[in-house]
Amino acid sequence: MGHNSPMNEPRVMVDGQLVPEGQVPLIPLDDAIVRGDGVFEGLRLYGHRARTLEAHLDRMERSADMVRLPFDRDLIRAEVERFSAATSAAECGLRVMLTRGGHRILREEAFSPEAPDGWSVLPVPHRITPLLVASKTLSYAANMQAARLAAEAGADTALLVDADSDAVLECPVASFVWIEGDDLVAPPLETGILDSITRRLIAEVTPLHVRARTLDDLAQADGALVISTVLESRVVREVKGIAQYDPQGRRITEIAGALRELCMTGDPDGGRAVPA
Predict the structure, then answer these.
(1) Distance (Å, whole) CA 160 – CA 187
(2) Which of helix, strand or coil describes residue 215?
(3) Do the Cβ atoms of 121 and 226 come closer than 8 Å?
(4) How far apart are CA 225 and CA 171, in angstroms?
(5) Percent helix, strand and coil across the chain, each rounded to 5?
(6) pLDDT tens digits along 112-145
(7) Rounded mean pLDDT of 79-88?
(8) Is 243 in contact with 118 (CB distance < 8 Å)?
């Protein structure tokens, strides 16, 4: 199935049971709904198979441990594999949620549309919660508010920047990297941003340089990418009020293409597929 193949009705699984097509899923009412208490991972399927599944399970287990949530790795792995075979599209997003009450919810999701002219990103001040650093919890209200502010401003997504230091952080549901000359650069994980699996993958196609930068520093950058497991990458054409980039630039196009090739042809459990 092609990269942008349309889905039929997206599938959902709750506690190991596939919800029949056309039926509204019944989601248990526990603290995941009441208080956003739970953890999740976002994966991407290629040919009904989740790429880097073990890396995502590793991170989900760390998130669960951080918020003291029991995590049955074997059960969740088995449900992901069974659900992946049943999705309506062979290539799609897959969200895995584990609630405070122990319920497992798996949901098939469509991709964000491609943007041939590149994405616009809106800087939004943010403070990372120290108690949740490096975890992916269901408490994503601040991230979603940033995404709404970006949409209201006509941007494709937000770029979170530290409210006190103006340090470049990440996007609401993705990582942010940029080009300095020929160098691909990412913010330090010590800022509290998520340890992105796609950030690790992109380091397999080109050296990744970790440098602390402020929002104003992006005016001197030579391009940027929004990256995530589900998106793979989206080339950035502008950081609103700060910088304009060429979305067809040689280096940014080269890196985005190499990441796509790695995702499509590499070992689904990780490993180099194209030369750096």
Answers:
(1) 12
(2) helix
(3) yes
(4) 10
(5) 30, 30, 45
(6) 888 889 999 999 999 998 988 888 999 999 999 9
(7) 97
(8) no
Phi, psi of 230 (to 5 degrees): -75, -45
* 236 DSSP β-pair partners: 119, 224
pTM of the model: 0.90
What are the pLDDT digits (tens) for 4-62?
444 578 999 999 999 998 888 888 889 988 899 999 999 999 999 999 999 999 999 99
Structural domains in the chain, CATH included, are: 12-109 (3.30.470.10), 119-265 (3.20.10.10)
Count of CB atoms situated within 10 Å of the CB of 166: 15
Q: What is the CA radius of gyration of the chain?
A: 18
Q: Which pLDDT does position 173 carry in this prediction?
A: 95
CA distance 189 to 202: 15
CA distance 198 to 229: 6
Helix, strand or coil, per DSSP, at residue 36 = coil
Query: CA 195, CA 68: separation in Å to the nearest integer?
Result: 19
**Which residue, among 153, 152, 170, has the nearest Cα to 161 in the 3D structure?**
170
- Integer angstrom CA distances of residue 225 from 106, 138, 155, 213, 221: 28, 25, 14, 15, 11
